[in-house]
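Quick one: structure tokens for this chain, please?
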Amino acid sequence: MEKINRRTLLTSGAALAAGGLAAASLVTPAEASTGQVQIHIFSAGFIIGVSGGNGTLTFRGQNFPLRIGGISAGATIGASGTDLIGTAYHLHRASDIIGVYSAAGAGLSIAGGRRAAQLANANGVVLNLRGRQIGFMFSLDLSGMNISF
């Protein structure tokens, strides 16, 4: 009797596994795509900083204009302009890029410096950005950036 139970268990387990694999091949998850991002941001502040700017998302052959706004709180002194380029990952549609991105960071730029950031929003979109900052800006702060159309 014990052999029948083991054999039955093995046979039914194999059947379930084969059925699961067949069902999995019928289901196609929504695939996320990547887009290219170009952003120009101007920032100024003394303790409380504000930033604004614009940019473009290129996604599936179309360009979407972006508006950038933000605020930072902490040790922020100076004014700077930053040009960033990069990639937006995990986009299902262009509107997924809309939202609030937050990051904690530190930086110092005097007349020019390189910047790099990886940010994510609530839609699961991840921005990998790099670029150049011009001006004087010292920051040790918590920042938030809002992207909208």
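The two ends are 69 Å apart (CA to CA).
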